[in-house]
Amino acid sequence: MSLAGLLACGAIRFVTAGRAATPFDRLLHVVRVGWGAALIPVTATYLAVFGAYSLALTPGRANLFSATTVAGSLLCSLITVLMVAVYTALLPWTAAYPAAVGLVALGLYELYVSVVFPPNVYFYEWYGWSRDAVSHSLLPVLALTSVAAGAALSWPTIVADVRAYRRRNTTLTARVQRLTATRIEAVDVAAAELRRIERDLHDGAQARLVALGINLRAAQKLVKDSPDAAAAVIAECQVASSKALAELRALVRGIYPPVLADRGIADAVKALALDCPIPTVATIALAGRPPAPVESTVYFAVAEALNNVAKHAEATRAEVTMEHRAGMLRAEVTDDGMGGANPEAGTGLLGLERRLGVFDGILTVISPVGGPTIVIIEVPCELSSPKISIS
Amino acid sequence: MRVVLAEDLYLLRTGIQRLLEVHGFEVIEAVDNGPALLRALVQQKPDVAVVDVRLPPDFTDEGLRAAIEARRQVPGLPVLVLSQYVEQLYARELLADKAGAVGYLLKDRVFNDDQFTDAIRSVASGGTVMDPEVVSKLLNKRSRVEPLAQLTAREREVLALMAEGRSNSAIAQRLFVSDKAVAKHSTSIFAKLNLAPSEDDNRRVLAVLAYLNG
User: Fold this and answer.
1) Percentages of chain B per state (helix, strand, coil), in multiples of 5
2) For B2-130, which CATH superfamily applies?
């Protein structure tokens, strides 16, 4: 029955052994932990039973063996309890609890069996061994050896388990902290963007349309009496509508550039390079399109980097490269300018870093004084297959 | 002059069609999507096409792609592309076949009907008309390309206006110089860009192309 318990325990451990690399690794893990964890209570129980039995067999001769056996059994029980405690406290309960329950159940079962059905202690007499010789020398040695072996075998695994769990815990905590931070930032960025769009519309196109309406009304009144003045006002209206359109165009570019919507990031970045006042070469090797939000964020990051090149770097040429390798989209903007760019100084790059952070992306600026400046944008993502052209 | 018009918004389509008809153009077909445009262009072979970049079914750049494909099948088919925004990238794609007879304008240029119809006629006759917004971006660019860097400031101005599709006399008016002076500047530009004397229109196209690529 203890063998059955041992197997049950092993099965539980096998299932809960987690993501050990191969089934063989998991089996090894089970054997190590299971052996130690199950051997100790089993041995402890037998030691206790044998101890009590030899005490009962030799009344008045409470010899050294009995004392050692009782003490040993207590020690083993203590170790078992400690192991269960350590497992239950430090490992995720899903992994440790079944094992712990198995151990306790096993111990209880062995105790029950030993009390209700006293084990056949005469088995060694069948072999013709002297009872005293066996009980005085062989049993304690065997018991202690097995306990020591079990503990030695299982301990490193248990320690490793605990360490791995702690490490995972630390990683998860850090991840949760980062996600919380980037989520707040993402919400802030989105809210600020909406406010900016609202303000731009309110002060720009909306105001111009109001003026347009007023002017048209004025023209309507003027048209009979002074057609020339009316014509002038209408000409003004035309200018106002052109300006409103230009502002809307600029606004749309800032929200989601049409070329990005039409062609995806590769061509959109090529378009950026073409528009950059500094001669810029774009080398882009992408087999598909990243997810739309990533695409847009990386586009704006590259746009900001090129903007900085044009504004601050005093460069004569710039280069943009973009590639996707091993699940990472990587864009690099290099210029031959004066260097010394400080990402902490401007709000532009910081804002980008926050926007990239939402996708676990990172922004690196390498800019020694004297140049060159390299801005590296990296975002983990997958590419979708390229769109099939209709033409 | 036979015109094919592609515009998906009903109001704009009828508006442009009316405007064209008022100015004596004959709109032989007005379509509202990319595949229909390609078919109309290849089958009808109009004197000029006025095409919106963004069309159904995808609402991306079907108009542009259909125009480029049609020009692949019918080389030099005159196409004027209209868009809510202009991209140098698209301008270069349109010009890439070096056949001329292309225009690329912001949609609001339609407001000025005289300029708009001038542009259509210019494209129909093999000219190249780029939106001032495309050209002004190029003016800001510090060119490092050898032949372009050799141009004087005045020659760059002339070239920019040439890219906008203006005739020599229009350029002369704009810059307050004589027609002769403009002709002199253009000869000098062609020489510096190594464009051998040939048909003037084609040289203008190539000069504009060099300018866009700079």
Assistant:
1) 55, 15, 30
2) Response regulator (3.40.50.2300)
Q: How far is CA A363 from CA A305, A353, A372, in A?
A: 10, 6, 17
> What was the pLDDT predicted at A297?
92
Residue A102 has pLDDT above 50, yes or no: yes
Which residues does B contribute to its contact with A (CB < 8 Å)? 34-35, 38, 53-54, 57-58, 60-62, 65-66, 68-69, 84-85, 87-90, 92, 107-108, 111, 137, 140-145
Q: Is pLDDT larger for residue B143 or for residue A250?
A: A250
How many Cβ pairs closer than 8 A exist between chain A and B? 69
Mutate to test the interface with A, among B87, B106, B113, B134 (most CBs of A within 10 A): B87
Contact B35 A389 (CB under 8 A): no
Whether the Cβ atoms of residue A7 and residue A115 lie closer than 8 Å to each other = no
Identify residue A249 by its one-letter amino acid code. R
Determine the Cα–Cα distance for residues A285 and A333; give it in Å rounded to an integer. Answer: 15
User: What ipTM was reported for this prediction?
Assistant: 0.79
pTM to 2 decimal places: 0.70
Query: Of 3.20.20.140, 3.30.565.10, 3.40.50.720, 1.10.1270.20, which CATH number belongs to A258-380?
Result: 3.30.565.10
State which fold the B141-213 domain adopts: Arc Repressor Mutant, subunit A (1.10.10)
